[in-house]
């Protein structure tokens, strides 16, 4: 059953003279309880996608078109009151760095209780009890004492557990996690990711996991979307994307993984860098870095096309499939 | 917190003693004395006078007597130039005046500056914002020694609304102009600092978190943004508080309030050692008390500072 259905979502940033396009008409679905990974290089538009879903874009960013149907309601058309009722309640977001995403002058308890009371009619004491239960669920030792502590008194890992507990407070249907472990100590990254996975599984919560880390994506998610320069250029089952990437960009990402490189040799990075929003090339945005680029790639933007279970936006892939089909027909 | 206050107080005592000693010697180093005049006194009378004030004693004895009187009798000694008055009387007469309008000036600055800054930040680039910026520039062009005469011209001479000087026991009509003239430029700064601080805080990740939790904008502003916003304002106000009470010499003289600034000027002209010294000590103690107050306010807002105090 579809929980979230995004259609032709376009996000722009106002600049001095005109505006630049940060998300160029992306479409995707997330089913109830489904875990979807969003990967891509820095600046691809992953965070912007997350913010747009929560209607959290702030000036100069704005949604320029498209639909975000969440539980049947279009987020882009909600009143501010409806948006507030959704945020933190039906759809929650976890941000990157727990050192700065919790308010330093409020206690953990205050920050949890206010969230509960913003959405439900609860007394402070009732809210406190719920907060305690959630802290226990995310394996926080002596939760009673934590409630009265300030963020700076806790370790990074502990803080991110609390952030997860806050996201889970009102039993949301969807959690958007924007690089939830990147800012943490390497030794606890896996713990936090396991916790997030366990929480989503046991509560049947949908997860949109934004990350650079393809390893994490393959462990946690069922489906993956690859973003490049404000578009989705490949999407499908995580296993097939990792094992059999179609788009040259995705292939490049996978080949650049340390596991794919023989020990001692250099990592195979994709040459070049992603174009900036204000200087998008004609045609496929990846063509300046693509070894397979043709004149068609330089002129025409390839549409995201369905091939069996995967969607890919690439002329070369399209040509391959066309030839395959021809060969099959000839046989 | 109490323990911290106590520790700070103990720590500052040596500083104040050093300050007294240094001021004491500096004063004696300067040429001339309280009894130097165009027509020298006959030597016999001079000796008499010096003996009366203890100035015939060796310096270290003078210093010791001075310190002893301050710390054991809270007595800053007699004034050298005003017969029959001692320093304690002079401070007791002038200080409450300066403190009163200094206090109201601080209230004026904070009670107006902070809300103005908040409004300007929330309505960024609106008419309000521009009015405030204009006001900030205005107050920089008109420091208190320009503003005070302008105010007197307007409110006293042209409209006859407020008395142009005097104190009259601190009735509000007499307090208002000194307080406003003294505070206006700080008011503009406080508004400016509040504005930029709030804008910065509103862009902070934890405010985004608060929005993502579905809190109302009002809650976000008052609960999440206000306290962190005030921290730079408090830092800024720390030296300003001191200056408002100590640096108001101009206001005291211009408005003839009879405040402590007037006594300072008089004492400097007449080389009234004991008054100058007494005031210097008063100012340094004030500086200490106000700084301590600011630090405590900081700790009250910022839990990180608070746990650092323990
Ligand atoms: N306030 C802004 N004004 C203009 N452009 C912006 C603004 N914020 C983000 N962008 C642009 O939007 C694009 C997408 O940014 P986004 O933060 O979504 O990238 P990302 O994929 O999350 O990257 P990262 O992995 O570094 O987090 C980037 O090119 C960025 O430059
Ligand atoms: Mg990002």
Description:
The complex is a heterodimer of chains A (331) and B (310). With 331 residues, chain A is an alpha/beta fold. Chain A is built from 13 helices and twelve strands. In chain A, the strands form two sheets. Chain A has an eight-stranded mixed sheet, with helices on both faces. In chain A, strands 2-1-4-5 form a four-stranded antiparallel sheet, covered by helices on one side. In chain A, strand 1 (2-14) and strand 2 form a beta hairpin. The longest helix of chain A is centred in the middle third of the chain and has 18 residues, at 186-203. Chain A is globular. Chain A starts with a strand and ends with a helix. Chain B has 310 residues and is mainly α. Chain B has two domains: 2-73, no CATH class; 88-309, MetI-like (MetI-like fold, Orthogonal Bundle). Chain B is built from 13 helices and no strands. In chain B, helix 4 packs antiparallel against helix 9 (217-246) and helix 12 (273-301) packs across helix 13. The termini of chain B are close together. The model of chain B has no long low-confidence stretch (mean pLDDT 87). Chain A binds chain B through residues 54, 56, 58, 84-89, 92-93, 95, 97, 100-107, 114-115, 118-119, 150, 152-153, 163, 166, and chain B through 204-206, 208-216, 219, 223-224, 227-228, 301-304, 307. Bound molecules: adenosine-5'-triphosphate and magnesium ion. Residues 13, 22, 40, 42-48, 60-61, 277 of chain A line the site of adenosine-5'-triphosphate.
